[in-house]
Amino acid sequence: AKLLVLHGPNLNLLGTREPEIYGRATLASIDARLAARAQAAGHALECLQSNAEHVLIERVHRAREDGTALILLNPAAFTHTSVALRDALAAVAIPFIEVHLSNVHAREAFRRHSYFSDLAIGVIAGFGADSYELALDAALRRLAALTH
Ligand code: DQA
């Protein structure tokens, strides 16, 4: 199946951005690990990072046409602000897993609310770069369950 990983604003700075909160792994290294694991399991995985809300929204729209089976989504700061990106995910109705590197519940109060969690299959937060791998594990299990 086709998997899509979407990273929101400022995640291009991973590695140097507040490493005590987000860790030292770069986005390129995270994406490479995810793609290798998905491929080993017989799936295709594409990653996109954008700092622009409309770019993420338009990629979600295209996911409906390109046969994307599941999305891993770290909306970053858009988690707490973007009704528009939420509406895009609701519109295409593609199942998605919400991912955060940090434990958003252990930080500022404004990070506790997400515009995505109630639409997501589930949420993984607080495990640093491993959050993405745990989310991919969950996605692979779900895809396997669907095809058996
Ligand atoms: C984040 C948490 C958000 O609150 C923050 O705005 C981010 C990253 C995370 O992965 O921990 O940019 O989504």
UniProtKB/TrEMBL annotation:
E.C. no: 4.2.1.10
Keywords: Amino-acid biosynthesis, Aromatic amino acid biosynthesis, Lyase
Catalytic activity: 3-dehydroquinate = 3-dehydroshikimate + H2O
Amino acids binding substrate: 74, 80, 87, 101-102, 111
Pfam families in UniProt: DHquinase_II
Pathway: Metabolic intermediate biosynthesis; chorismate biosynthesis; chorismate from D-erythrose 4-phosphate and phosphoenolpyruvate: step 3/7
Xref: PROSITE patterns: DEHYDROQUINASE_II (PS01029)
GO MF annotation, one: 3-dehydroquinate dehydratase activity
GO biological process: amino acid biosynthetic process; aromatic amino acid family biosynthetic process; chorismate biosynthetic process; quinate catabolic process
Site (Transition state stabilizer): 17
Active site (catalytic residues): 22, 100
Major enzyme class: lyase
Subunit structure: Homododecamer.
Role description: Catalyzes a trans-dehydration via an enolate intermediate.
Family: Belongs to the type-II 3-dehydroquinase family.
Name the record gives this protein: 3-dehydroquinate dehydratase
Organism in which the protein naturally occurs: Aerosticca soli
Gene label: aroQ
